[in-house]
Design a protein that fits this description.
Elements: H1 3-7, E1 11-16, E2 21-28, E3 31-39, H2 41-45, H3 52-74, E4 83-89, H4 93-110, E5 114-118, H5 119-125, H6 128-131, E6 138-143, E7 148-155, E8 159-165, H7 171-181, H8 188-196, H9 221-236, H10 243-268, E9 273-277, H11 284-297, E10 300-302, H12 306-309, H13 313-325
Parallel strand pairs: 1-4, 4-5, 6-9, 9-10
Antiparallel strand pairs: 1-2, 2-3, 6-7, 7-8
Helix pairs in contact: 3-4, 5-13, 7-8, 7-9, 7-10, 8-10, 9-10, 10-11
EC number: 2.3.1.234
GO molecular function: tRNA N(6)-L-threonylcarbamoyladenine synthase activity
Binding site for substrate: 142-146, 176, 189, 193, 283
Length: 348
Amino acid sequence: MSERSERDEPIVLGIETSCDETGVGIVRGHTLLANTIASSMDEHARFGGVVPEVASRAHLEAMTPTVESALAAAGLRFSDIDAVAVTAGPGLAGALLVGVAAAKAYALGLGVPLYGVNHLAAHVAVDQLEHGPLPKPSIALLVSGGHSSLLLVPDVARDVISLGSTVDDAAGEAFDKVARVLGLPFPGGPHIDRAAREGAGTAVAFPRGKYDDGTLDFSFSGLKTAVARWVEAREAAGEPVPVADVAASFQEAVVDVLTRKALQACARYDVKDLLIGGGVAANSRLRALAQERCDAAGVRLRVPRPGLCTDNGAMVATLGADLVSAGVTPSTLEIPADSSLPITVVNV
């Protein structure tokens, strides 16, 4: 460790390449120094979804300039870095490989520890940049394009327990598919959120999967299909599709289930702190309904600002800093990129 890190908190460089965004973040403990993102979203938009090979090539091209940009934004040199953290999984295999290989090279070249971390745990850890240390324990609801999970988090650096997850489509995936049905651009989440503001969430009674099944799991495939069938029926009858009302009603069905299950988890495990993370956590209706229901239940709600909800390097760096501070043994240079890394494995 450098002389500086012996006096202060560790300065950690974090690399995130699990999907379509090359994220590089730098933190000093829980203080954000830089959060630089190079997105390949525009390259995927014409396909209506992320193309793994396109994402991998984009990461390869963006890696070096994004790291250099983050260092410049933080006003640091490579010699200031105390550790390197990288998303080792879950995610797209090829995309993960680019980030893991780069992190190994930087850690080896700088002579600093390497930490391969779990993408989902990093989404939990990042909230500390905005709201301070996580209460122990917390319940975390993670909702994104690839994941819808409920977690019990006694200690984000050491112990994350899965309580429930999606049995089919993730919430973000359903947003993308419904947006396509409604003729809205990819990615669907922000466009449905925007359209829904002009519609009524009670206009169409769409189904709520696994609403009263007693589990903490989710299911959005049936809802997605119900929206598609409803729209098809209107079009077949020659009637206009009320996009705003459909978007609002679909969105209401999703956030109703998400918040209901999250509060059930808090009650079941007697936890008074709920964290919502992942890209869908940027949704305005999810934030509003979660706050309303948490207030009624006496639960404290934590949601990072939208820029920290989507995939980014700062979340990886933050979890890396937690691992350093907790004295967790660093990863070896043999760590794999694991596309199906389970949430219960915080670091590899």
